[in-house]
Design brief:
single chain; Rossmann fold; alpha/beta; 9 helices
Length: 245
């Protein structure tokens, strides 16, 4: 099983990169894939063009409300596991599991714990897992993202975004999360270049170019599965995924 995670500051394009990685794997015959949307601002389903299933957080909240009125003879843990299994959105070559968001000032700790435990059980059924992480460093600090084969840290080509990416990189090292390979990806869709005087903490594996195909598909609310093989961004992602796998 190969586990890939994508992290980065909000607005860097990490969800688009996650989608392109999934599509690249599937088109290369590497399937089935478990896609995990671990960002409370869930948009991976839109990028993949599938229905967004009930989230882990929604299920936990619902069960908590009826915890004293569960069906007779069913333990809470078993009932929860059944509901989580039902929450997976199944597609032909990939399945999608969504973390979701809490209502109000709730804490994600319990939901993160459940997601971690549940993923450790089900990911064994998939040869490939791709996780789109929460923006920033939350999932790293809570150790939801661990035992990763490849971690892609996405950044825009400006100092603020690059410094945020470096903090994510440093934290992943400090927490000893068992990440085998870490790569920096620069998203240059804005046309901005990295300042010449800026010292990078990692040499970028690749830059993600501006791609009108992606913008058009997103605006038309279509999934990226319709992206042509000639798409500049898709070609760059596919070439580099083939190299690092």
């Amino acid at each position: 099983m190969t586990k890939i995670a994508v992290a980065g500051k909000g607005g860097t394009g990490k969800t688009v990169l996650s989608g392109l990685i999934i599509i690249s794997l599937l088109r290369n015959g590497k399937k089935p894939v478990l896609a995990v949307d671990a960002d409370p601002n869930s948009t991976l389903s839109e990028i993949l063009g599938v229905r967004e299933p009930r989230s882990v957080v929604e299920i936990v909240d619902e069960i908590d409300k009826i915890k004293n009125n569960l069906p007779a003879g069913i333990e809470k843990s078993k009932y929860l596991e059944f509901q989580l299994q039902e929450a997976i959105e199944e597609s032909t070559d990939f399945d999608l599991l969504v973390m979701g968001r809490t209502e109000g000032p709730g804490c994600y700790c319990y939901a993160n714990h459940l997601l971690r435990e549940y993923m450790e059980r089900i990911e064994k059924n998939y040869p490939f897992v791709v996780m789109d992480n929460e923006a920033g460093m939350e999932h790293l600090s809570r150790r939801t993202t661990r035992n990763i084969d490849i971690l892609f840290i996405v950044s825009l080509a400006n100092k603020v975004s690059l410094k945020s990416a470096e903090r994510i990189y440093r934290m992943s090292k400090e927490l000893n999360l068992n990440i085998k390979k870490t790569f920096l990806v620069i998203n240059e869709f804005t046309g901005v270049r990295i300042p010449r005087d800026f010292k990078l903490f990692l040499e970028p594996l690749f830059t993600l170019p501006h791609d009108d195909n992606i913008l058009t598909l997103i605006e038309e609310e279509k999934g990226l599965f319709e992206i042509p093989s000639s798409s500049p961004a898709y070609r760059v992602v596919k070439e580099n995924i083939d190299k690092v796998m």
